[in-house]
């Protein structure tokens, strides 16, 4: 059984581009070993993350996140059994990186930039809709 969990949280301290790169380098091997995929977005001290994979591994990963002192105010917005992955390739969208170097970074996604520019971002699942809402500019 595949399971999806999407949450929002606030960072206890601001993350720099280097911090985000380090975070990705640390969690990617563990997520791959646990068959976890999804999308992690960070913007102005806030995280939105969709995790998907085997239910036990998703819950274990989320439990680790809840114990991580870099997060506060964790709110689960969506959790459900799924039949297929909405985000089959792990991706992380960086707020602080720009230009060609950002696009070449492993795991970089233009998800936030595409949403903000009004470009279509495919996907019609609840996590897609939540992450699009997180990515929209504040008016």
Q: What's the total count of β strands? A: 5
Report the sheet with the most strands, covering strand number, pairing sense and barrel closure: 5 strands, mixed
Total helical segments: 5
Question: What oligomerization state is this entry in?
Answer: single chain
Strand and helix order: EHEEHEEHHH
Q: Estimate the mean pLDDT confidence.
A: 79
Q: Strands of the largest sheet, in order across it?
A: 4-1-3-2-5
Distance between the termini: 40 Å
What is the overall silhouette? globular
Percent of residues in beta strands:
25-35%
Structural class: alpha+beta
Gyration radius (Cα, Å) is: 14 Å
Helix content class: 25-40%
Unreliable residue stretches? 93-102
Q: What would your notes on this structure say?
A:
The chain has 139 residues and is α+β, with helices and mostly antiparallel strands. The protein has five helices and five strands, in the order βαββαββααα. It has helices spanning 17-33, 55-67, 99-104, 111-116, 126-135, and strands at 2-11, 37-43, 46-54, 71-82, 91-93. The protein has a five-stranded mixed β-sheet with strand order 4-1-3-2-5, with helices on both faces. Strand 2 (37-43) and strand 3 form a beta hairpin. The longest helix is centred in the N-terminal third of the chain and has 17 residues, at 17-33. The chain is globular and about 35 Å long. Residues 93-102 have low confidence and may be disordered.
């Amino acid at each position: 059984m595949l399971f999806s969990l999407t949450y929002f949280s606030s960072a206890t301290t601001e993350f720099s581009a280097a911090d985000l790169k380090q975070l990705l380098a640390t969690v990617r091997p563990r997520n791959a070993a646990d068959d976890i995929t999804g999308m992690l977005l960070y913007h102005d001290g806030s995280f939105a993350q969709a995790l998907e994979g085997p239910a036990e591994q998703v819950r274990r990963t989320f439990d680790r996140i809840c114990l991580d002192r870099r997060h506060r105010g964790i709110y689960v917005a969506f959790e459900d059994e799924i039949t297929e992955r909405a985000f089959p390739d792990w991706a992380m969208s960086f707020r602080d990186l720009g230009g060609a170097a950002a696009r070449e970074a492993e795991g970089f996604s233009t998800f936030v930039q595409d949403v903000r520019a009004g470009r279509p971002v495919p996907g019609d699942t609840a996590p897609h809709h939540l992450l699009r809402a997180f990515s929209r500019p504040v008016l």
